[in-house]
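Is N-[2-(1H-imidazol-4-yl)ethyl]acetamide placement plausible here? Inputs below.
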Amino acid sequence: MKNNMIALVLLLAGSLAMYSCDSATNGGSQQVASTEEAKPAVKAPAFNADSAYKFVAKQVAFGPRVPNTPAAQQTGDWIISKLKEYGAEVKVQSFQMRAFDGKMLNLRNIIASYNPQTANRVLLAAHWDTRPFADKDSSNQDKPIDGANDGGSGVGVLLEMARTIHTAQQKPAVGVDMIFFDGEDYGQPDNSGIPYKEDTWCLGAQYWSKNKHVPNYKANYGILLDMVGAENAKFAREGTSMQHAKGIVDKVWKAANHIGYSDYFKYENAPAITDDHSYVNNWANIRMIDVIEYNMGAPDGDYFGPYHHRHTDNMDVISPRTLKAVGQTMLHVVYNE
Ligand code: AHN
Ligand code: ZN
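Reply from A.M.:
I modeled the complex. Tokens:
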């Protein structure tokens, strides 16, 4: 009897609590309906980390994606075919540029578009080439690296986003362009013995910034993904991004923190880093931020991670959780435009 009474009291208390919860929610949503900024967030489709991981592994399996090699030819062809499979309109820019060492490089920028007619657009980017040498390593410096993280990860996240947008019932309201830049990582090493030359990095971004895939191309803003797959990666607010597009950094960091990725997206400032977004900001005049691993607290000043431009940049450093943190954040941002 006593037990029954307690159960009854608990039941009543429970339903009262539920009722008051409901009414609070209802009252709340009626209030926010009239105010713009309190618009409830759109729930983006789920980003599949295992699929993204497989896209990274597939690139690594082709071999180092060094310009003028069969692996680069095969990987570029594969990226193009996946993007077509995922319903994007695909454009390919083929061009030649001379590297710091005098070599003429055959390069391809690959551009995928969703909703190409929409004026309101977001531009996502990553580089798909990998560094032709391991200049920060202590051995085999002249051999190319796997570039699982430096190159592979950004492409893996973008391809999984493309697959998600294609498969999901709900599509983003905004137009989405994805640029896969070539020739980012053929930059002049510090101790090459060759006289210093300006603008040796980011060759594909340089070319695109002067030769857009669409005349008068415009985007509201862009997000570059570079080294976004390593376990325990930290992303700091990079200098050029803060200078040209602080509002976008705020938006992306807020989204990441809101959906539970504060471990990755840190409210710390990093110096300006030369990367594809430098040319998109300064030459193409489109504001673009760089989500790039930069761990302000790294030991030995290895801010880019201990694998950077070394042979240890292989599949062992890639974490599906990091790919998920970045990919889900990107989907959240895109679906809330
Ligand atoms: C430099 O090391 C000059 N910039 C970093 C950009 C980069 C290289 N991203 C990947 N590899
Ligand atoms: Zn690199």
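Short version: Residues 150, 185, 187, 201, 226, 273-275 surround N-[2-(1H-imidazol-4-yl)ethyl]acetamide (ligand 1) (CB under 6 Å).
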